[in-house]
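Progress report, Aim 2. The chain analyzed during this reporting quarter is listed below.
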Amino acid sequence: MTIDMHSKLSIADALGRLMKGGLPFRFEAYDGSVGGPENSPITVRLVNERGLSYLLTAPGDLGFARAYVAGDLEVDGVHPGNPYEAMSLILSQLRFKVPSAAEMLQVLRSLGLEHLKPPAPPAEEHLPKWRRALEGLRHHKNRDASAIHHHYDVSNRFYELVLGPSMTYTCALFPTADATLEEAQYAKYDLICRKLDLKPGDRLLDLGCGWGGMVRHAAKHYGVKALGVTLSREQAEWGQKAIVDDGLADLAEVRFSDYRDVTETGFDAISSIGLTEHIGVRNYPDYFRFAYDHLRDGGRMLNHCITRPNNLARATAGAFIDRYVFPDGELTGVGRIIMAMQDAGLEVRHEENLREHYALTLKNWCENLEANWDEALGEVTLGRAKVWGLYMAGSRLAFERHEIELHHVLGVKVGPDGDAHYPLRVDF
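Predicted structure tokens for the chain:
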């Protein structure tokens, strides 16, 4: 194909040059150009030059997120609190191609080389990795506290609107596909209690306890004396108040603390529900050794975390997740987690994958955000609310498409005589 280097492409035409099979959605640009099928249920609208600069200077999910969060890229046909249908269409049908050098030069000249200067990112974006490094080494206590603050200390009321009454920000367990979110979160906590074989009088340590859902469930329904720790001050304050309101102050505590600062030992059980993603793969040996050292002989640990579908080395999450959702978050395969637990001395007795359950959980969270959108905007910025809709809908797709998984791994601290205090068969 002969390319006229002197002809100027419209924005829609330039985008079309980068697509295989054309655009699967309707596209409209501020220069008046359009592309894609007229009858598409989804319209993506680029409204200004800053949005174009975002897209050109950070290709992929980060540039799209910057333009979308800033309001420079609009999506019609879906609610911003639940953009699942749009993301499903885009991710399933959008295919990029590698243009020739001449085509790429024509595209850049047409769009304007001045758009290759990166605009300042939206206020909702966290610091880049090089700036975070100035705050301390990755997963140092101070840097971990900063990362947790960015995501969790948003607004407790905002989380109530999204998560529902359980205030549980981890994968639920749906006994049936039509179970409510509250029923599913109750079932999740109860399953973990049964896997840990909790009994009245037992001592439970919940690492990264969030708003204290596991702590309160174990205390209320199993008579356990439970301690939960979280790096989020707002979570700790909310969780401790809920404990008092439930009349559980004699059994339960949510403490604002790094788990590494817990001095109590001899616990009958340890639960870690959604914390492993934050601690760093290189810190697994210390993390699981901490759990081993804080259990009594025969004590159990249940590790609940998001994983990759393989154990290949790939420490960091995508750019959007790292900068807008979980700074410094890391995922690996369940095999790596099992190996780390074993190497720390824990005997692994049970493992299961709850991948589909997390997709259903995220579906419910998105529906909650959509239903409570107006009130949510009274708690956070429009940009922050859009980040949440984007990330939850995208995560739902990732679980559905088997790009990520959710695993339970149950380990036991075996006594010196080899007794694991474990039945011949389990019934959970």
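The chain is about 45% helix and 15% strand. The longest helix spans residues 382-400. These observations will guide the mutagenesis work planned for the next reporting period.
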